[in-house]
Amino acid sequence: MPLNMTKIAYRSESPATLRQWLESHRDNSTTDGEARLTTRYLPKRHAEMVGGSLYWIHAKKIIGRSPILGFMENGQGKQWIRLEPKLIAVQPVPKRAHQGWRYLEAKDAPPDLADGAEGAEEMPAEMLGELASLGLV
Predict the structure, then answer these.
(1) On the chain, which terminus has fewer CB atoms closer than 10 Å, C or N?
(2) How far apart are CA 50 and CA 62, in angstroms?
(3) Nearest 5°: CA angle at 110, between 108 and 112?
């Protein structure tokens, strides 16, 4: 199982603005159609993370994920986290804010929401959890 990571959706006003930012990179020829985040250091376990996902934290909960394509030096002494330019909604779970990124084992990652649950990341986590337990999302 690939290793995942969590990161704050810094400067995103909402999950919708995060989705727009990610999708704006789809047709960008300078980034080869991938979203890139800058990080100071290459994770020690970076090889395990290719094929995993970056889980986004917004408003103290994990709201979605973006598949990790890999890592690359950016030419300025830092690293890029290379992501597929999409946001996959997950069942929101509470998560404390933190600086930088943190590893997230697959067993601790929240499940994806069913297709058609568009906008579900906007719901309060408690409501979404109850709907999920009823099999409605």
Answers:
(1) N
(2) 20
(3) 145
